[in-house]
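Example record for the data management plan.
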Amino acid sequence: MTRRPRLLTTAAAGATALLLLTGCGGGDGGSKDNDKIAGADTETSASPSASASASASADRPKIELPSDLTYTFDWPKTGNTDKDAVLADSEQSIKAVDLAIANQNALDKAYLYYYEGEAAAGTQKFIQNYVDNKASITGAYRFYDPDVAVDKDGTASLSYCEDQGKAYVKYLESKKVKKTEVTAKSYVVYHTSLKKNSKGVWVIQKIISQSGSAECQP
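Corresponding structural encoding:
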């Protein structure tokens, strides 16, 4: 229940409709690590006074993805320090989820750095679905049309589009890649709510996605 609405049971890029994080629990099976709830022990978010220098010095996880995954972020800089920080951290959060899928670890530390609360719990369940099906992802993703707003209380919102037309599910045991045709559902809109934590990192608290969004169609 997070970004990338592709159900492994159908192996269709962009399958399922709405992914709404409303206090989802942890994943439903797999390793015993999954008995833990992602984000349950996350620190309380800090006030908006957390400095830009704190953000720059935050001990961010190193994200090294498989060579068969590529990304294009058509997210031009806004010139606003906070807005650009939201975009930069959101880019890393997207890649961190895909790293967890590649690592087949629903409690991978990299994505837990960028997600907390409802968003972390929903993301854990989403990743566990891939682990349970012994599946990963491959191909190219493009992200575009960002709309970011930052409030004085240290919270922010970000909406953006994703083109999944050249991205696919791959099954690890059979080595098969399920290629699907590009349809309206290959284009997905995301709406995220974020808050700056004590390290100055913009962490995702809630996320909603909708495949087949008219505003994201080419």
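Summary line stored alongside the record: The radius of gyration is 16 Å.
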